[in-house]
Amino acid sequence: MRFVLMLAAMAALLMVFSTARAVEDPPDPHFQLVEVEQMTPYLESFNSITAGTATQSAIRRQGNTGGVVFSSQAFALFDNQNGDGSRATFPLEVEDADSYGVSAQLVRGPAYGIVQVSIDGRPMGAPFDAYAPALEKVSVPLGTRALAEGKHMLTFTVAGKNEAATSYLAGIDLLTLDSTAAEQPEPTAEPTTEVGGSVPATLALTLGPPATFGAFQPGVAREYVASTTANVVSSAGIAKLSAALSVSEPGHLRNGTYTLPQPLQVSIDPAVWNGPVSNARSTLTFRQAIGADDALRTGAYTKTLTFTLSTTNP
Predict the structure, then answer these.
(1) What global pTM score does this model have?
(2) Per-residue confidence (pLDDT) for residue 250, from 0 to 100
(3) Which of the four CATH numbers 2.60.120.260, 2.40.50.840, 1.10.540.10, 3.40.640.10 does domain 29-181 have?
(4) Of 20, 82, 14, the residue nearest 47 (C-alpha)
């Protein structure tokens, strides 16, 4: 019985250790070499016309040449004779989904142009000047790209050429996908701090210039209209009546001991605000009706009114 228990304990310990290692171990790296000249059929070869003369762009497999030995003894040559955006597209089959550091063995030579490499229509790296006095192959890092498993497209676009180049060729020997070469985001520290300010309880009201009806004309029935403005500042919170503007009882205009028979009318628009406002404008309108039989005494008829800005939610 003791032996069986010991075996069970060892098995449990081994399982725990195995699980811990599985969590701690980094993911398996993925590496893939792509012989581009073997990725057939070629998907696209763009033909163009330059200066009225047809110039052919074609893709073909080019063997070792100029004393340069290529992997698999050949490379993919984009035999292009113009620089107006001609492009060649190859199928690219990715074996494992991962984030890859992408690099390419590109061909340089006296007749090679400036090439932009793209995967799935997205540029990889900067345009590459493939001119060189003699034929050679160079390894060019193209950056990091996350690639799903399955079919993708590798495209060469010839954008121009070096002044010393004699034509617009492009060539690739090998494409390398290496997950261990993918750029990793640098860890960053993100401490936080608070910044702010406070708003004191504020209700402010400023009235515009005094309203005047002008001259009243005796013996003529008429309604006189005058207006001014009010400027409202309120820090009151959201409520049904955060801030309200009201006026004292208008009453009647007076000229010494004489009073106009009909009362003064006052309207406020708007008169209510349901949240904080700054420099909100309100129009104050005054109306005074005078009848044809109303006696008018020489002099000024006036009335002092008091406007109040108040809140239910300071």
Answers:
(1) 0.51
(2) 92
(3) 2.60.120.260
(4) 82
